[in-house]
Design goal:
alpha/beta, 6-stranded mixed sheet, 31 strands, 23% strand, globular
């Protein structure tokens, strides 16, 4: 009898996994018998110490596998969740921003995916008015509920609208439920997604708009970065929509990044109206809603994604265009954990996919303009507003030696009255929220300071009390200072104080305040926007949130109360940010037939930066500021990284950075250690080390060498590449 041949036992399969832990390495695990292998880019569940973590498979059977790996607990994806393109992007993010790969995936994926949610999509849920509903009678019944009324009007003109699209248009789940409880609308579930493009014709394009559309259209299918430099009100959004329409009609997908979705419902409504298969992704959504939107983009049922910063990481089936609106906005830079710039990531992703990316702004960042000068980006200009609308005129109010009424000069008050009498609306920009930034004792000079931070407490009247805008501490308003004096005086004006003054000065005119305190309620903010849209005379008071792309057709005057602070700051980026804010706020004026005016109160009427900005425009300011940066060897002329350290004792943070500095060679210039602009937050002292290099390679090599440095107990530290704040 022949000897029976033995079947060789297949070698065990080793799976390499990136786990969400602060270690610059991946981990090897053994695939249990009879368990299907995970896809590269798929999720697995693995033991890590006493914990069970969900990670991403990055390799199968690596040649340098660990000798004795632990077994995996479960394989969750046998087909890739993360595509090869997104895996490559994650690797770049890890290397460029110096964040462990596993932690990059933890930020890249929605929370539901990290928690092991199923990839099975639910059926599409759509809303529409009940059959046979008398719309006119229902709208009349909703006269005391303006947002529900607006939602019913929206659904009556756009029936069969998805839940996500309704949220993207600025409405809320409770508003939907309220209409359903009144039996005005109902929801149904369907398998077929809405059509990608609605049968809606946009406004006629101007010559410059049409040229911009033609230029970008010609690059579809290849990588090219464009800067769409258009004055406020010049029709940048319509350029975006025409390009998105070309992409979607050809079967592709588009990504539109915006700074803050909750503050730009008008833009969202326009996008959703033109493209019913639009989904949104922002912090206001639940984990399941974000996961559903992510999956809709991955499987192609969503044609357009409108999202904030993190939407740049979304998986698409066929992404063909990326648009970054208000590309200069600081909110595109993440300030903790993975400190990425969504604008820069968008450019890298477009290059990897070989597709165009369009960066739009009325005040482009100096980094983008430097890339234009270097020939890396193409410059597209929109210099005119559509129709008869003209840019506003600028006027300087010298308030040196003037007596101010809660920060307002008599000249400014008279200009406001003139515009209100003519039927216009007035927008008043104040760069601080709260009632007053300082509470001072006039006898001993005591000020109300935050005991946890190196900052003063801001006095608020609504709700009453003192607040720290850095750590969130809240205290009741004191009746006396620490020395027993009752002579407490609010110094300086915030939005609440200006609001109170304007209500006293113009008792017959509605005054609306828009800042972080009032917009916490999305419903209240939407009601305010509706009141503004009616066009009747009123006064708006707010912070830079008022500059976030709003279209206020009734505003004929923009009053800038204090334009000096940013030009006096020690932060080299402050003049750029101040100029951008002034021009963005100014752009809210005169967007329709009546020409607008911008009046700026200042104690420095001859400041060269302000004079250039007002007399020659943002372009001249940007050229001048770029030349200043070049002479000073500051970004974008050089590359910068910021090493931050914090500890309960200042000496510990300083000593750590001093020791780290001693290891830095001569290829990179190291400045510091020095206190951070805000030296203490939540009891922790903050120090920083500034690194400057002529080239990116030298800076990255240094950061790669030092990034795994272990600090002493009690010290936390981080690397911020291309920092935006705190330099």
């Amino acid at each position: 009898m022949a000897q029976e041949e033995l079947t060789p036992t297949p070698p065990p399969v080793v799976v390499r996994v990136a786990l969400p832990v602060p270690l610059y390495r991946e981990f090897d695990y053994l695939l249990p018998d009879a368990t299907p292998a995970p896809a590269i880019g798929g999720r697995v569940r693995a033991p890590f110490g006493r914990r069970e973590l969900v990670g991403i498979c990055t390799a199968l059977a690596p040649a340098d596998a660990h000798a004795d790996p632990k077994p995996l607990l479960a394989v969750m994806d046998t087909t890739p969740l993360v595509s090869a393109e997104l895996l490559s992007l994650a690797g770049w993010l890890s290397n460029y921003y110096h964040q462990p790969l596993g932690e990059v995936f933890a930020i890249l994926l929605p929370a539901a995916a990290r928690q092991g949610a199923s990839r099975r999509r639910t059926r599409t849920r759509i809303w529409s008015p009940l059959p046979g509903l008398d719309i006119a009678t229902a709208l009349q019944a909703l006269h005391r509920a303006p947002r529900q009324r607006a939602l019913l009007e929206f659904l009556s003109t756009q029936p069969l609208t998805t839940h996500g699209a309704i949220l993207a248009a600025g409405f809320t789940g409770p508003q939907l439920n309220a209409l359903a409880e009144r039996h005005f609308i109902h929801a149904t579930e369907v398998d077929t997604p809405p059509p990608p493009v609605a049968n809606i014709t946009g406004p006629m394009l101007g010559e410059e708009q049409a040229a911009a559309v033609r230029t970008v259209s010609a690059s579809l299918g290849t990588f090219q970065a464009f800067v769409l430099d258009g004055i406020t009100g010049s029709g940048k959004t319509e350029v975006y929509l025409r390009l998105i329409e070309q992409v979607v009609r050809s079967g592709g997908q588009a990504l539109l990044l915006v700074p803050e979705i909750g503050l730009t419902p008008q833009t969202l409504a326009r996008v959703q109206q033109r493209f019913p298969a639009t989904v949104a992704m922002h912090s206001g959504l639940s984990d399941s809603e974000r996961w559903s939107a992510w999956l809709a983009c991955q499987d192609g049922s969503a044609s357009v994604l409108v999202g904030t910063r993190s939407a740049v990481f979304t998986q698409f089936q066929d992404l063909r265009l990326i648009v970054v609106d208000e590309e200069h906005d600081a909110s595109f830079k993440q300030q903790d954990s993975l400190r990425y710039s969504a604008r820069d990531v968008a450019v890298v992703r477009a290059r990897n996919l070989d597709i165009p990316v369009l960066l739009g702004s009325a005040t482009p960042s100096l980094e983008s303009l430097a890339n234009v000068q270097a020939g890396r980006y193409r410059h597209l200009v929109l210099s005119r507003r559509p129709g008869s609308a003209e840019p506003p005129s600028f006027h300087i109010l010298d308030i040196r030696g003037h007596t101010l009424d809660e920060g307002l000069s008599q000249d400014m008050i008279r200009v406001m009255q003139r515009h209100l009498d003519a039927g216009g609306q007035v927008l008043t920009y104040v760069n601080r929220r709260g009632f007053s930034p300082v509470l001072l004792c006039t006898v001993c000079g005591w000020t109300a300071n935050c005991p946890r931070c190196e900052s003063r407490l801001t006095l608020h009247r609504q709700p009453a009390g003192l607040q720290c805008h850095h750590c969130g501490l809240q205290r009741s308003t004191p009746h006396q200072c620490d020395n027993g004096h009752t002579t407490l005086l609010p110094v300086g004006a915030g939005t609440q104080r200006t609001e109170s003054a304007l209500e006293r000065l113009f008792p017959d005119i509605p005054v609306l305040r828009i800042d972080r305190d009032t917009t916490r309620s999305q419903q209240r903010f939407e009601v305010q926007l509706e009141q503004i849209a009616r066009g009747a005379p009123l006064i708006l008071v707010g912070t830079q949130m008022l500059a976030k792309g709003h279209h206020f057709p009734g505003v004929t005057l923009v009053a800038i109360v204090n334009a000096d602070g940013g030009f006096l700051s020690s932060d080299f980026r402050a003049p750029e940010r101040t100029a951008q804010t002034i021009m963005q706020v100014a752009g809210r004026a005169g967007r329709e037939a009546r020409r607008g005016e911008v009046w700026i109160q200042t104690l420095q009427p001859d400041h060269p930066t302000l004079m250039t900005l007002v007399s020659e425009g943002y372009g001249a300011f940007a050229r001048q500021e770029l030349a200043n940066r070049q002479r000073a060897a500051l970004p974008p002329a050089t590359r910068m990284a910021l090493i931050r350290a914090d500890a309960l004792r200042q000496a510990d943070a300083t000593t750590f950075l001093t020791t780290l500095k001693a290891t830095i060679g001569t290829q990179v210039q190291a400045l510091g250690p020095a206190p951070a602009p805000i030296q203490r937050i939540a009891h922790r002292h903050r120090q920083q080390l500034l690194l400057l290099a002529t080239g990116r390679a030298e800076l990255q090599r240094l950061c790669l060498r030092i990034r795994e440095t272990r600090p002493p107990a009690g010290v936390r530290w981080s690397i911020d590449i291309d920092p935006y704040d705190g330099a």
